[in-house]
Amino acid sequence: MNESRTLYLDRGVLLNLCATGYAVEILRALPYQCTVLEDICQSPLFLWTQSQGGEELLEREEIAIAPLVSTGVLRVEHFEREQYKQAFVAFALHIRDRQAAMLAIAEQSDAALALDDKCTRRVLRRLAPHLLVISTLTCLYTWQMNVEIPDADMRAILKDVVHRAQFTPPDDDPLCGWWQGIVHKAT
């Protein structure tokens, strides 16, 4: 973890990383101080659990963020709307308030963002093209390369993300080929 630059994770990316079962290790491998806004902690995050056969989704499992915070790999930050009012309003005209808050604070503090949402990425390219934006795939790829996880092990982890978080990587993600290559690689 490199605390010189903050990485704000949106709800979706955090959920995807938690779906791996290795969120602590992944966040630790990223070269940032990983942070979420307080509002993410105020509503529960859920993953799906599967039956033994793996075909049917049975129930939701609530994900606790507190262990990530207590191990020091994730920081929770309060958003002061007045402090970031001008940037917040500019973003909120185009996207949901929750996302607008994260973008406003990231822009004002020259932080990086981790998000997958195509609409939010489009708004960022137009209003704040200077901000560094990474994706779930970037986080997972960085972790695999840093820790040297074999592709066979990574395949099972990526399949957990698909099933437990109901995640499909965007086709335009530069690492989509990496994901597809691992998930569809013959064993």
Give an overview of the whole structure:
It is a single chain. The protein is of the alpha/beta class and 187 residues long. It contains 10 helices and 7 strands. The protein has helices spanning 11-19, 23-29, 38-41, 66-70, 85-92, 97-109, 118-127, 136-147, 151-165, 176-183, and strands at 6-9, 33-37, 45-50, 57-63, 75-77, 112-114, 133-134. The strands form 2 sheets. A 5-stranded parallel beta sheet has the order 5-2-1-6-7. Strand 6 (112-114), helix 7 (118-127) and strand 7 form a beta-alpha-beta unit. The chain starts with 5 loop residues before the first strand and ends with a helix. 32% of the residues are buried.
Alpha-beta classification: alpha/beta
List the domain count as a whole number: 1
What is the 3D form? globular
Strand order of the largest sheet: 5-2-1-6-7
Which residues form runs of ≥5 with pLDDT under 50? none
Q: What is the radius of gyration computed over CA atoms, rounded to a whole number of angstroms?
A: 17 Å
| N to C succession of SSEs | EHHEHEEHEHHEHEHHH
Helix content: 40-55%
Biggest beta sheet summary: 5 strands, parallel
Kindly report how far apart the N and C termini lie: 33 Å
Highest-level CATH class: Alpha Beta
Per CATH, the superfamily is 5'-nuclease
How many β-strand runs? 7
Mean pLDDT, all residues: 89
Instruction: Quickly count the helices.
Output: 10
Which fold name fills CATH's third level, the topology?
Answer: Rossmann fold
Q: Based on the structure given, which CATH architecture is correct?
A: 3-Layer(aba) Sandwich
